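Request: Mind sharing a record?
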Amino acid sequence: MDREKLAGFDLFKGLTPSELSEVLEIGREVSVEKGERIIEESTPTSDLFVLLEGKVAVEFEITDYDSEKTESLRLVSLMEGDIVGEIAFLERHNRTASVTANEPTRVIKFDGAKLHGLFARNNLLGYLMMQNLALILIDRIKRSNLLWLNEKLS
């Protein structure tokens, strides 16, 4: 893993090289083939993923209970530097969406419990990464608001 490149990712901003190393010790690099699921909606896991390369689709399953038909609704496409799994990581609850690789993709998979444990042991590191997570989520909310507003105005 290119630590210099990773240091520029939003999730790791403000971390010292030693703090970044401490975080990366918990993660493991995983390669995912096109069409492979990284996260399955409704599964009980709190792992957090950072996209190193490739593109993924975040999708919800929508069921029409009258017709009993289910379809996938694409929420967003994400790429290098983005994170997925943050809601279950923060809530420590079941996954709220599925994430599928649109092309061959590499991710860093962080065990949620171990990452929370690191944050408990190193409060400053935990604070910085949680602040970064909050800023990432704020940016996503702002973009969603703009998309919604543009749709309403067209």
About this structure: Residues 3-143 form a domain with the Jelly Rolls fold (CATH 2.60.120.10). The chain has a mean pLDDT of 93. Residues 85 and 94 are 10 Å apart (CA to CA).
